[in-house]
């Protein structure tokens, strides 16, 4: 058996920067350290931080008056900043700069009175945050082609679309095509909202599907970009599974397989992938592991000031 690793392993720049902000804040201020929402969507990262005294909360009311709180990489709505200021909380903002870019686009659209179709997963933290930057009367959240068909936009007024950063590139292109079919004058953001990390990871899985007969994705159930990787492989007709922890691997998935591909979401620590490789090697200790240099080597974002 051969093991092929996708050329995008480890944290993306946004996750790396958010995780480092929590580490630095822990070192500087100690526990308990409050973080609003899971800093990134990965079970292992969250469990490690909880052991060190990080307290993950959803409502700012759970932070003591005048306390310190970190906002997660997924971004927050303006209302949350207002609430933090009103309660005199000291906050550290770990929102990924690429999510902030979408927030800015949303503000611009609303300033121009553009009816804004926001494509994404309802209930996802990033979508909730971005929605807050769109004027409520201009906001239309869609997830499926049916949602787009059901829209009743004013054709005499401008229409624009924005997307969550971690969507399927292929599926989103279909949704945008559908929107433009019904509302041909729709305009997009100046630059693609799906981020480079999401695009790179989906490209890497596409590459794996050309040679591998099964693709295992490391990623947590709530991680949008990880789930899209499994769908990418399945969409190419290749068997694919997603696991949160290496122990979830079922050896039966590898029965009769010659080439196993492994990829991981943007918030998955490298040690999870290494542990999965070690587990697969329990079946075939001599299985060669093929890995090429990451296409994201050298890309980093500034660490939020703590
Ligand atoms: S997946 Fe993209 S948007 Fe999300 S943290 Fe990483 S770089 Fe930022």
Describe, in short, the structure shown.
This protein is α/β, with parallel strands linked by helices and 306 residues long. It has 10 helices and 12 strands. Helices cover 38% and strands 17% of the residues.
Describe this structure in words.
It is a single chain. The protein has 306 residues and is of the alpha/beta class. The protein has three domains: 2-11 and 195-290, 4-hydroxy-3-methylbut-2-enyl diphosphate reductase, catalytic domain (Cobalt-precorrin-4 Transmethylase, domain 1), CATH 3.40.1010; 13-96, Rossmann fold; 98-182, 4-hydroxy-3-methylbut-2-enyl diphosphate reductase, catalytic domain (Cobalt-precorrin-4 Transmethylase, domain 1), CATH 3.40.1010. The protein contains ten helices and twelve strands. The chain has helices at residues 13-29, 43-51, 78-86, 97-111, 125-131, 145-149, 169-182, 196-211, 224-235, 270-280, and strands at 2-5, 33-36, 54-57, 68-71, 90-93, 115-119, 139-142, 159-163, 214-218, 239-243, 259-264, 289-290. The protein has a five-stranded parallel sheet with strand order 10-9-11-1-12, sandwiched between helices. Helix 4 (97-111) packs parallel to helix 5. The protein is flat, with a radius of gyration of 21 Å. Iron/sulfur cluster (SF4) is lined by residues 12-15, 73, 96, 98-99, 165-166, 195, 197-198, 225, 266.
List the helices and strands and how they pair.
Layout lengths: L1 E4 L7 H17 L3 E4 L6 H9 L2 E4 L10 E4 L6 H9 L3 E4 L3 H15 L3 E5 L5 H7 L7 E4 L2 H5 L9 E5 L5 H14 L13 H16 L2 E5 L5 H12 L3 E5 L15 E6 L5 H11 L8 E2 L16
